[in-house]
Amino acid sequence: MGRPRQVLDEDILVAARACFIEHGASVSTETIAARLGVSGPALLKRFGSKRELLKAAFGVAKVPPWLRLLEKGPDERELTEQIREVAAAIDAFFREMVPAFSVLREAGITPEEWRGENKDVPPPARTYETVTGWFRRAQEQGRLREGDPSVMAGMFLASLQYRYFLAHITNQPVPTEEEVPWMQRMVDMFWRGVAPESEPGSSSSDKARPQRGKGPRVG
How far is the C-alpha of 38 from the C-alpha of 18, rounded, in Å? Predict the structure, then answer.
């Protein structure tokens, strides 16, 4: 008799994410195991239960991996370069996670589960606070115009996630940045609104100038 196939945890989580998104929260562990070529009991032995597997697959109670880009910055590089870097990381996160939200809702994930060990600040709230802090520090460095940094954070995050929600509810694909440079356009327009008054492209006449080319699209 051959030895059982060895599967890495990350391989299991990738397969589980795909199966949960494709079939919903009710998908059986046997279906997930079949995709990996292992047994259902082997998955449960590794993660304890299907619910724990679902939570691990979608990072419930974990902070987004891109948050570390924002916790200590901005650094000395051009601010627009850093905004593009952060936008790319957040965009990749939402591309993967937005289709999961309906699965998590179907599974009945509770606020307590979202909080995990951090009972005071759940990951979504920590994310918003961290992005706000990054914009506040950029203002203190004199690299952004005056204004409420929490509003800047909200606009920035909402701009990056909305098209994935729209694509999800309309069942349409979201083009990659190589297909349509949407994110670059969004960051350029966002910068016009938050750049210091002395920055080129931040004058009121520039803001009022119509933008050429096509706007962002889904599908």
Answer: 16
- DSSP run (H or E) holding 204: helix 204-208
> What's the CATH code, domain 60-208?
1.10.357.10
What share of the chain has pLDDT > 70, as a percent? 82
Which residues 6+ apart lie within 8 Å of 113 measured at CB? 55, 60, 61
Q: What is the pLDDT of residues 166-186, one digit of tens each?
A: 888 888 888 988 898 999 999
Task: Give the global pTM.
Answer: 0.70
Residues 115/55, Cβ–Cβ less than 8 Å:
no
Specify the fold of 1-57: Arc Repressor Mutant, subunit A (1.10.10)
Copy the structure tokens of residue 152: 């800047």
